[in-house]
Amino acid sequence: MSQSILQLENVESGYGEVQVLWGVSLSVHAHYLTTVVGANGAGKTTTLRAAIGSNKVWAGRVVFEDDDVTALSAHDKARRGLVLVPEGRQLFADMSVEENLEMGAFSPRARTHYRKNLERVFGFFPRLAERRQQKAGTFSGGEQQMLAVGRGLMADPKVLIIDELSLGLSPLLTQQLFATLRELKQAGLTILLVEQNVHLALALSDYAYVLTEGRVGIEGPAHEVAQNPDVRKAYLGM
Amino acid sequence: MYDLVASLASGVLVGAIYGLAAIGLSLIFGVMKVINLTHGAMIALGMFALYFFVSVLGFNPYVSLLPIVAGGFVVGVMVYWIAVNRVIGSSDLMSLLATFAMNMIIIGVGTALWTTSPYNVDFSLPGISWHGYTIPGTQIVAAALAIVIAGLLYVFLYHTRTGKAVRAVASNRQAAELMGIPTRRILAIAFGLGIAVAGAAGALIATLFPFTILSGGSYELKSFVVTVLGGLGNPAGALAGGILLGLIEGGVAPFVDVSWTPVIEFSLFVLILIAFPAGLFRIGKNH
Fold first, then answer.
1. CA geometry: angle at B98 spanning B97 and B103, to 5°?
2. CB contact under 8 A, B180 and A78
3. Does position A2 have pLDDT exceeding 80, yes or no?
4. What is the ipTM score, two decimals?
5. Domain residues for A29?
6. Residue A106: how many CA atoms within 13 Å on its side-chain side?
7. What share of chain B is helix, strand, coil (3-state, %, to 5)?
8. Total structural domains within chain A
């Protein structure tokens, strides 16, 4: 059994007056791929945003590597290695591929591994190497997602958190990106994934949480969750 | 004919300084979507800073630019943390009011200290004479320095880590934060740079013309015209826009009374806003 590296403990959060999370607890084990699935509006993205500090945590705690990081800003958490690849890519559109990757490696910790990480990213996504001077905003959706993941990897994450990896991508590109994810996992990276393609996500994951209306409904090893009759009915269309 | 050419040449030179001033405004707007209404006051402070270094301390005016730029940066960072930081992310009106308030404070203190009678920095350089017209050497050096400062800013923004972080924050502040970039600190740096550039422009203007604490106001308005010509948030466009504005001023100067110049300038401003809402130099930009 590996060690838990990131824990959310009874986290409550939301937007303005609207509470979305009603006490979410989850734990991410080192070198695991952990998936959060759930319907639209169940609070998946909010869970990730609360974890990395983009959303304020109203109640509860976020613990990363045994430190309480609840109150830290998003950039401080990123510097510690808690890195989010946000939904909708959120690239620096006016900047080149290379500059986007360089900004990914902004933190002092990531900078020391810049060369190594850059080679790794170009190894995963040769297309980025070919177009390193091109502006990110001119890329297709699939290339942008590659760059978003690449930029996240440049931050030298201890936990890579990905929000909707396959959203808006063709099945072929989705397969490609999931293959990359598998390689990253095999290389020992800890990943926390929110993914609308529940079938693919559960097939690749070690552990899964099912969010329902801002609470964790079902959790367990991914293959067990995939067999759960409620999950099969609601998310897998069986 | 000769008078027009001389007037145009002088217009281009002064226009480069308008461009530099506008870069200060444009940089701040581009990075944090704040229209900095302290801009004119900061230009005026740059003018008085030059007076202090040259006429009181006896420095060379161009050497004085170094402490003026450094001091402008410090003042800008302070203004950011005092007045701007807490209104970032709230409505546009809040940052307008915050910077307007700072502007009134600076103008008020400046008026109390220095009154509103004109000051003059006594300094000249041999110029270039041509068919009875003389382009003052101070104009040539000031324009060259304006372009050098703009160039240095460009090098900073495109070839240094911190500069690239400024552009990243301008492009997508939230994503920058996710990548470990301390975005508030970067905003403070960008504001400091914008003020430093405005102060440098003020100092260069003060080597050419007499000034009062209120003089910054007309350069602030010119900066708005220039940024609209060049496209808000586009520093290279701002420099080109400044030179264009200088050309227009130089072009009309031999034919009309000087009081008509702002009428023509601002009529043009309105026309360009109608015809090219994104600015003249936005065309062909990848978006």
1. 90
2. yes
3. no
4. 0.92
5. 1-81+160-165+194-238
6. 31
7. 75, 5, 20
8. 1
* One-letter amino acid for residue B245 of the chain: L
Q: What is the pLDDT of residues A105-115, one digit of tens each?
A: 999 999 999 99
The hierarchical CATH code for the domain B2-282 is 1.10.3470
Structure tokens at A31: 């070198």
User: Closest approach of chain A CAs to the CA of B165, in angstroms?
Assistant: 7
Strands A207-212, A215-221: pairing kind = antiparallel
Strands (E), chain B: 128-130, 133-135
The DSSP string of B117-163 is: S-B--------EEETTEEE-HHHHHHHHHHHHHHHHHHHHHHHSHHH
- For B212-227, how does the pLDDT look when each residue is reduced to its tens digit (9 = 90+)? 999 999 999 999 989 8
Nearest to B237 by CA among B9, B23, B31, B18: B23
CA gyration radius, chain A: 17
Tell me if A101 sits within 8 A of A150, measured CB to CB. Answer: yes
C-alpha to C-alpha distance for A78 and A84, rounded to whole angstroms: 8
How far from chain centre, in Å, is Cα B275? 24
Residue A123 pLDDT greater than 80, yes or no: yes
Residue of B nearest to A104 (CA): B179
The CATH number assigned to the domain holding A12 equals 3.40.50.300
Contact status of B90 with chain A (Cβ, < 8 Å): no
Beta strands, E only, chain A? 4-15, 18-29, 33-38, 59-64, 67-68, 82-85, 159-163, 190-194, 207-212, 215-221
Residue A32 CB: number of other CB atoms within 10 A? Answer: 21
Q: Is B167 on the interface with A (CB under 8 A)?
A: yes
From residue A71, alpha-carbon distances to A50, A59, A84, B87, B94 in Å are: 10, 11, 17, 21, 27
SS3 labels along B155-179: HHHHHCHHHHHHHHHHHCHHHHHHC
| Residue A122 domain flag | no
Q: Mean pLDDT per 10-residue run, chain B (287 residues)?
A: 89 96 94 94 98 96 97 98 93 93 96 95 90 92 96 94 96 96 97 98 97 95 87 79 92 88 86 80 46
Interface check for A52 against chain B (CB to CB < 8 A): the answer is: yes
Instruction: Tell me if A64 is assigned to some domain.
Output: yes
Whether B212 and B122 have beta carbons less than 8 Å apart is answered as: no
- A29 assigned to some structural domain: yes
